[in-house]
Amino acid sequence: MAKRDFRVFAKRYGVLAFASLACAFSYTTFVDWGGLYPGGATGLSIFLQRLAQRLCDVAGIDFTVPFSPISLVLNGIPAYIGFKYIGKRFTIRSVAVIVMTSFFTDLLPKGTIESLIPAAELARLKSDPFVASIFGGIIFGFGMSLCLRCQATTGGTDFIAIYLSEKKGKETWNLILAINACILLSAGYEFGWRGSLYSIVYQFISTQVVHLMYRAYQNQTLFIVTSRPKKISEAIHRLSHHGATIIEARGSYSDEKKGIVYSVVAADDTAKIYALCKTIDPGAFIGTMNASRVIGRFYMRPRD
Q1: Among candidates 156, 122, 153, 293, which has minimal Cα distance to 219?
Q2: How far is 66 from 47, CA to CA, in rounded Å?
Q3: How many CA atoms lie within 13 A of 47 on its CB side?
Q4: Which residue from 39, 78, 132, 171 could staple onto 34, CB 3.0 to 4.6 Å apart?
């Protein structure tokens, strides 16, 4: 492995380790305090762990049920799907996140942060699941965003969602929603509805954090009014691999002939495209809007 490649490898896995630690910290503190359930395989793992722990307590067995074996088993089949159909390196990095998060969740001392907080304040925090769901969701969303930036995922239903959306062309939102609903309904029935319902807040907050920090799966429509449409179209394709449509136009005030470059690109490319357009044509006028859905041939970055 070349020296530069090793540095990239070490940096990527260092970030993934930190992201896994952040997710595990969210689980062992705020999720535990609020009796919450994250979405997907993690939420199911926590539910099964708590169910098994209750059975041990009822049977009088002095044993703390670990999180990692349950998590690793539940992620086995989705990881196989990812390895076979999505991308080997992408799946290997994701499996590394799953393994690190699982073991960090078991190894992190749960009393560390509690020892830093006054007893009275800690009691109030533990009795307020809304606070736990807010801060737990922020930390988990932050960790998940770091994983996505390193071309990995936290695993579980993410593999299934990516497979169905990219390989089968099917919408995955309803499937993920149904899985999470089943987990929350089961958890609410077994352990009470308070934590189960506040889990919706936790999942919503984490989703919003990911939406803010990671924009590769968001698309934006560009309308660029310019006197050099051909050059700008070529620059957009060179930078983002997306094509463009040139529309002939005329300025209503100056009556000058212009071109409108219409293109849909990934949202995280827009800042580079803005700068590039201004370099090619300083007088270019750029308007953008969110593209909620794209139908047709649209370039997707490959996963390695």
Answers
A1: 293
A2: 12
A3: 25
A4: 132
Per DSSP, the residues of 184-207 read: HHHHHHHH-HHHHHHHHHHHHHHH
State which amino acid sits at residue 236.
I
Dihedral (C-alpha) 23, 25, 26, 29: value to the nearest 10 degrees? 160
Q: Two tokens at 277?
A: 């357009």
Q: At what angle do helices 129-149 and 119-126 cross, to 10 degrees?
A: 80
Answering whether pTM is above 0.85, one says no
> Would you list the domain boundaries of the chain?
3-213, 219-291
The answer, yes or no, to whether residue 164 has pLDDT greater than 80, is no
In this structure, whether the domain defined by 219-291 belongs to CATH 3.20.10.10 is answered with: no
Q: What is the pLDDT of residue 17?
A: 95
Alpha-carbon gap, residue 287 to 302, rounded angstroms: 28
Amino acid, single-letter form, for residue 183: I
Name the residue type at position 184.
L
Residue-wise DSSP of 76-96: HHHHHHIIIII-HHHHHHHHH
Is 60 exceeded by the pLDDT of residue 303? no
Count CA within 13 A, CB hemisphere, residue 244.
28
CA 208, distance to chain mean position in Å, is: 9
| Buried b or exposed e, range 14-47, using 16+ CB within 10 angstroms | eebeebbbbbbbbbbbbbbbbbbbbbbbbbbbbb
Local structure of residue 257 (DSSP, 8 states): E
- Give me the pLDDT at residue 2, please: 62
Angle between helices 157-167 and 40-58 (to 10 degrees): 150
Tens digit of pLDDT for each residue in 95-147? 999 999 999 999 887 766 777 778 787 788 888 899 999 999 999 999 998 99
Distance between CA 304 and CA 294 in Å, rounded?
23
Contact 44, 183 (CB under 8 A): yes
